Amino acid sequence: MFDPVEKLKEFIRHPSVSTDPSFKQGMLGAQNFVSTLLGSLGFKVEVVKTDVHPIILASRGGDPSWPHVVIYGHYDVQPADPVALWKTPPFEPTVVGNRIYGRGAADNKGPLLTNITAIGLLLEENPNLPLRITFLIEGEEEMGSPSFPAFLSGYTDRLKEADFVFLSDTALPNEHQVVITSGLRGLALFDLHVTGAKGDLHSGLHGGVLLNPIQALAEICASLHTPEGRVNVPGFYDDVLNVEDWEREQLALLKPDAKSYQEFLGIDAFHVPPGFTPFEAIRFQPTLEFNGIGGGYQGEGTKTVIPSKAFVKVSCRLVANQQPDRIKALVIAAIKERAPKGVRLEFVDQHKGEPYVVVPPGRPNTPKDQSPVLARAFRATESAVTQVWGRPPLYLREGGSVPIIAEIKRATGLDSVMLGLFLPEDNLHAPNESFNLDVMKKGVETAKRIFAAVATS
Amino acid sequence: MFDPVEKLKEFIRHPSVSTDPSFKQGMLGAQNFVSTLLGSLGFKVEVVKTDVHPIILASRGGDPSWPHVVIYGHYDVQPADPVALWKTPPFEPTVVGNRIYGRGAADNKGPLLTNITAIGLLLEENPNLPLRITFLIEGEEEMGSPSFPAFLSGYTDRLKEADFVFLSDTALPNEHQVVITSGLRGLALFDLHVTGAKGDLHSGLHGGVLLNPIQALAEICASLHTPEGRVNVPGFYDDVLNVEDWEREQLALLKPDAKSYQEFLGIDAFHVPPGFTPFEAIRFQPTLEFNGIGGGYQGEGTKTVIPSKAFVKVSCRLVANQQPDRIKALVIAAIKERAPKGVRLEFVDQHKGEPYVVVPPGRPNTPKDQSPVLARAFRATESAVTQVWGRPPLYLREGGSVPIIAEIKRATGLDSVMLGLFLPEDNLHAPNESFNLDVMKKGVETAKRIFAAVATS
Lengths: 457, 457
What we know:
The structure is a homodimer.
Chain A: H1 4-12, H2 24-40, E1 44-48, E2 55-60, E3 68-74, E4 94-96, E5 99-101, H3 105-125, E6 132-138, H4 148-160, E7 164-167, E8 179-184, E9 186-195, E10 201-202, H5 213-222, H6 245-253, H7 258-265, H8 278-284, E11 287-296, E12 305-306, E13 309-318, H9 324-338, E14 344-353, E15 356-357, H10 372-389, E16 394-397, H11 403-412, E17 416-419, E18 434-436, H12 437-456
Parallel strand pairs in A: 3-6, 3-7, 7-17, 8-16
Antiparallel strand pairs in A: 1-2, 2-6, 4-5, 5-18, 8-15, 8-17, 9-13, 9-14, 10-12, 11-13
Helix pairs in contact in A: 1-3, 3-12, 4-11, 10-12
């Protein structure tokens, strides 16, 4: 068997930034890395072409009576900007203590390799393991998986034969407590461009007669939240799923520490919708955030222009059962209604993803028709986590998004067992991303036990 | 005598961007160009070192009984960004029809060369012209003339001996109507930086617990104007000078055309403080503008971060008798009071300039102690303009700023005769700046007559 840490270094060295076309070689390198690795473990590898980046399907067949797991992951990563803030080069993996630094170390190269390693070890120990396995590794997760719906409609029948999906692309609250993610937020993203005069103008010769597009944009942005921290868009909260008592209880067991969370963030005060703790707000409430804003002169010194244009990048995180298209339409309608006269608006649609919830077995709201293999997978995960980590996992919804999980559910009916493996301090989507190698080691052992238990039942 | 158009081409080819240190060679080239040219006309040239860019003083002495004019101009230009929007290279002068294109063509290289040419021709015709002349050509106008106060305190006594200042760094409303500028707006500039979390954060893992600095910035910016278009800062308008009846009458004589102005700007509607026409607003009212804004991810596609920082560049145009320091303090106090909790503010001071007014002879509010030579210069200008352009000039305050005019007044008591020479369509501070060569020709003839009349009286 391979050394998983060395393999992870190799994986990180491929700069697989999916949103930026200049990283084409890195994408190809990461894709070949995954295909070769799974091929070496005896999997039949198919590279499925899509409009953007290929999806890798790697399968191990077997008796139709054997349980069938789809293991999901992604080989693409976020851009590394701002590169200047990295202490080590983002695509040159660097081990310091029990951490490996590099873009994608935690999202999702480390966790994906954890599951591949577990399967490799398990098959080495028991080549006749009664488990059918399909790896489904995509290359567009960080750009919203635009090719995934088309892929799904072509492969629905084959995926429908499986019993459940397993993945590690969610978070642990700390390195002692494992979480099985029972919900993910969805996404609705768009850019707003505001145009005033037909060109940049001298602020002396023309200042005082027209609405500055930066001012118009500021007024629009400012209108989208109440001072209390709720999103100020009519209908925005209409479809938000109620929180179950057992969900609040699980979260209470986590004993989240507000003070150290605040210190970690480096903020003077939390800013949370009324009626929610910070930890509840992330899991149970939707957001509307501004990811970027720009317009006019941004260089050193001054340039006394009234700019012609300004823009903002908006993203909403959605919770079940909000629909991304409906939310985008509501926000855009509110913006159009509120925009001051004298400027023109242009909306550029970006990606979207549906929110997702799954209820573990034995809860008041567990669906009566839940798949027995899915229920077994949840029980096996509870048991393996308790053995390896010394305490049972918690079932929690989380704030991040893996939009294809809801897509898979809708297209194939399959639910997902999401075993979190990255930590808040791993700096996902930010400079100096890293992955905890102790977590990786325990993760390998946990996944081995889960798959063994699902297989032998 | 030299060909003024060829000389102007030569002048434009020196990329003298004062705010950007990488244009050092261009600054030096423009400075040498001016020094050499004035030297060739018989002036005694001094290059006065300052902390940033030198000031050129070029003098022609004479009998102490002769009138003494200080001719002001600047050899520096605005940055050319966004360079991609230029149709011709900004520092390669291009003549198309009766226009010369290039950065600085109108602001201020063309108008300055107009006055130098007039003096050259006049001295060629009459080498014994009874007029003392001091050219004062600075290289920091586009960066707020930071070295000018120190220069002034060193040269106050010398400048005090002069009778008035003459310059062409203001605008004509159209190519048929000359304006003598009777007021300039002042400036108060600063940047505001807003910081939220200590680093960029994943908008899924942390979205919902903290105030996004872009949102905080938007709320601050939105609060600084009323919906009607007034600056919403307590005390902002306290010191604003009343408009005289003769000023409104002069403006009415201009017969400004709102419809074609709106078309020129390319806007759907004017946005003017209540009680003012667009043309009055520019001349008689102060503004608060946002010249640039930035924060978070501004690239292609999406990056779902909550940024750590965002900033805005603020500039106020002031009218007499607002004090820049007081206005900055009022605006900053309002921002501090209104800023939402959970973010940190940092203010970076930029430059400033006092507003200025001068009243021509024979008005109800003309100062009783106005200098006779200044009064004569105004009358001479009225007469020359009427002869060369076929209609008398109008006295109008204008929206732009030449902060050193107020500085000179304060330090030396000298008032300025400002003969406008550039046009609204000259695109000052914007891409495709140009200067009208017919205006230049008439400007040379006008200036010749003015200086001849001042001298011979």
